[in-house]
Design brief:
It is built from 15 helices and 22 strands. By secondary structure, the chain is an alpha+beta fold. The longest helix has 17 residues.
């Protein structure tokens, strides 16, 4: 067994365990690019957060924004204007000094229609950005935004260097990108390796870290290893220092391994779901959508596929998340007989081959998902459950580097991702606002009440008012069965025991957020 493990580990081409100079990290999925403003993709976010910074950071509790590039802020009584006081000791990896103009440029670029930023809403509805002096930004909104500071911790709101963006043009985030982060972008070989190097001048780490900078390694080498068995073998053989994509089915072995530490990120909200494109005729009827949702056994999937490293999800928002509405708990009830009746009532009758038909069309929806992710295994399981009620899922796995682009083509009835989120408002504003059609509102859900309630939740000046309106959204979208919530996914970080201080963070599936305290 030892010989086999070592053979697999060496076969993937790694150079060996970390030295004092290099920290090695392993991922299962790569990204299409590393321009944070043009994507929702988690595999972009974790690398971007290494080499670029935000105005505020997210504390370990997953709820509290703390100073970062902005050392302090004042909010106006009407909730519309945030005055940020910036640090005056920050520089980009290129050596350029960071000022208010970089903040203004970054948010104007994010809001530029040419960027088509799917997460531009995270920055609020900006009316005007002003710099009364080089280290002050007046951030004026069209309307109050109850979660602005929370959202400003997210990777999509990192600060960019205009000179780098313009010099690289269409290759920005591919051949390079400048940032103020603790690491600097060095090189990227798609599907193979990302190399970051230490930002020697960095000394402005947020208060959540003991070490404010620089990082304690000269390089961070991130290898893309899609095969789960290879990732397990490499960690067991000591060929990598850390990973946050260790296969769930082997976590028990990792916990027992004498050379490894397993740490769970808490809190952590990650929902694996399958969503319906409601404008496709096959899934336009909510009875069909509900039938698929209630015909699966989530507990079996959590136990059999994730081996207990996930819990069954019957609501879209986790019960422990900010502004979860407990009234949604009973909307999804697994019931095979009810599922069959719903399909019968909606006109889909079982054909000779066991697959339901209506007007000459088979109930065989096209399902898109990332091939080397949990969704792939879960999709296989759901396909088996749904055959029992006469539904034939047509599975279309996509490589992670093109999955987002394939989904953007809109040629499917159902898709799946695992979405990380911070709160009910965060999740709802991502997916259910009609302004976000066609992505990330891939349901093409356009509903006036939903839009109005989201707006009222965003602009609320009290916590109670915000929770009230976000609860109304949760109830409506759950009753419409726009998604099949399947699993709330645990997130574990597996590290070699020689690595100290690598506490896992929950932000957007990262765990290894900035790496400032990591050392040998």
């Amino acid at each position: 067994m030892i010989r086999t493990v070592l053979g697999v580990a060496l076969a993937i081409g790694v150079a060996g365990a970390a030295s004092a100079q290099t920290l090695t990290l392993m991922k299962g999925i790569d990204a299409p690019h590393y321009d944070a403003q043009r994507t929702t993709w988690g595999p972009t976010s974790d690398i971007v957060n290494m080499f670029q910074d935000t105005l505020v950071a997210l504390d370990w509790d997953g709820r509290t924004p703390i100073p970062y590039l902005a050392k302090s802020w004042i909010i106006s009584e009407d909730g519309r204007t945030y005055t940020f006081k910036l640090r005056d000791d920050v520089s980009f990896c290129s050596g350029k000094k960071f000022t208010a103009e970089d903040v203004i440029y970054s948010f104007k670029r994010l809001k530029d229609p040419a960027i088509k930023g799917p997460y531009a809403w995270r920055a609020g509805s900006i009316k005007e950005l002003r710099a009364p002096d080089p280290y002050t930004v007046e951030y004026e909104l069209e309307e109050p935004y109850s979660e602005l500071l929370l959202q400003l911790t997210m990777f999509t709101n990192v600060i960019h260097n205009k000179e780098s963006v313009e010099a690289l043009g269409k290759d920005y985030g591919i051949k390079g990108a400048d940032g103020t982060g603790p690491w600097c972008f060095d090189s990227w070989q798609p599907r193979t390796e990302i190399v970051l190097k230490r930002h020697a001048a960095y000394k402005w780490g947020p208060s959540m870290y003991q070490n404010k900078g620089p990082v304690k390694f000269e390089k961070l080498v991130v290898k893309i290893v899609p095969e789960e068995s290879s990732r397990v073998a490499a960690m067991m053989a000591g060929q990598f220092d850390i990973t946050h994509q260790f296969p769930h089915q082997f976590i028990t072995q990792a916990r027992a391994a004498p050379m490894l530490n397993v740490s769970e990120a808490k809190p952590n909200f990650q929902l694996l779901y399958f969503g319906f494109k409601t404008t496709r005729p096959m899934v336009a009827d909510k009875r069909v959508r509900e039938a698929m949702s209630i015909a699966i056994n989530r507990a079996e999937i959590a136990k059999g596929i994730l081996l207990g490293n996930a819990t069954a999800a019957f609501t879209i928002v986790d019960k422990d998340a900010l502004d979860h509405d407990p009234k949604t708990a009973g909307i999804v009830k697994e019931d095979l007989e009810r599922a069959r009746k719903l399909l019968d009532d909606s006109g889909w009758k079982v054909g000779a081959d066991g697959v339901r038909e209506k007007d000459g069309t088979k109930l065989a929806p096209k399902v898109y998902y990332t091939a080397n992710a949990n969704s792939a295994k879960v999709a296989d399981a759901i396909q088996g459950y749904l055959r029992k009620i006469g539904v034939d899922w047509r599975l279309n796995p996509q490589d992670s580097t093109i999955a987002a682009a394939k989904m953007a083509e809109q040629d499917y009835e159902i898709w799946s991702v695992t979405v990380p989120y911070l709160s009910a408002g965060d999740l709802m504003n991502i997916y259910f606002d009609s302004r976000n059609i066609p992505t990330p509102n891939r349901m093409n859900w356009k509903d006036a009440e939903t839009d109005e309630w989201l707006k009222l939740g965003r602009s609320a000046l009290t916590e109670a008012d915000r929770a009230k309106h976000y609860a109304m959204v949760q109830q409506k979208v759950m009753q419409e069965h726009l998604w099949i919530p399947v699993l709330n996914i645990n997130m574990d970080q597996v590290a070699n025991k020689k690595i100290k201080g690598a506490r896992p963070h929950m932000i957007y599936q990262n765990t290894f957020y900035k790496g400032l305290d990591a050392s040998l």
